[in-house]
Each structure stands twice: as structure tokens, then as C-alpha cells.
Amino acid sequence: MSETIAQTVSDYVQGMTHADASLLREVFDPRAFIVGNYEGATEWLSLEDFIHQIRSADQGLQEQQQEFEILGIDKTGDTASVKLTTRVAGLGFSEYLTLLERDKNWTIVHKLYYVRS
């Protein structure tokens, strides 16, 4: 079954919102890096470090609603870039995801973020 870019992004946000390690491992390439400035320091996290951080932050509250807006998708061949805003655990983020299509499914290979609030 072919997965669209928008579905991959939605799954990513659901994984973040509910601290769902399995879902995050499905949408990210295991070699992905998550990069951004958090609390004044630049973070360069591996996928596993990122998952650990999310799970440690107590964000996995099942009653949380997914809050995100895709602001743009730029697709060329089997590559894509997505700009979106999200709100997780009371924080607003601007995010840039880079994706690669493999076997008719889109996988996040890099995440760059900025905390807005």
C-alpha cells in the first residue's frame, strides 16, 4: 500500500503527540537526525535519543489532540520537503521535514525544528 507524504506527516505528529515509539520508528529512517535549538542549546539527536526524550518528557497523554498544519510540500521525484507547524505539550514548533520515498512509502530522513513558544 502506498503511503502519501501527508499521511506520513500525520503519523509523525500522532507519534509525537502520544509518545508512540513504534510509530515514530515506522515514519523515521533509523539513521535520521533531529536538529534544533531547545532551551538555548542546539540539539543534534539520533532517532533513539529523540524517542527517549519524548517519552521522558511525559508527552504521551492519550487525551492530547493532534495539532498541526502543513504549510507546504515540495516534492521532486522520490524526495520531498515539508514545512509544518505543530503544538505538542503546550509548545509551538516550526518544523522542516525531509522525506525519501522507498518501496512506495515516505520516510522522514531529517527533522529541523524551531521552538516558537
What do you see in this structure?
- It contains three helices and six strands.
- Strands 2-1-6-5-4-3 form a six-stranded mixed β-sheet.
- β5 and β6 (105-115) form a beta hairpin.
- The model has no long low-confidence stretch (mean pLDDT 90).
- α1 runs antiparallel to α2 (21-27).
- The protein has one domain (5-115): Nuclear Transport Factor 2, Chain: A (Roll).
- The longest helix is centred in the N-terminal third of the chain and has 13 residues, at 5-17.
- The chain is α+β, with helices and mostly antiparallel strands and 117 residues long.
Short characterization:
With 117 residues, the chain is α+β, with helices and mostly antiparallel strands. It has helices spanning 5-17, 21-27, 47-56, and strands at 28-38, 41-46, 68-76, 79-88, 91-102, 105-115.
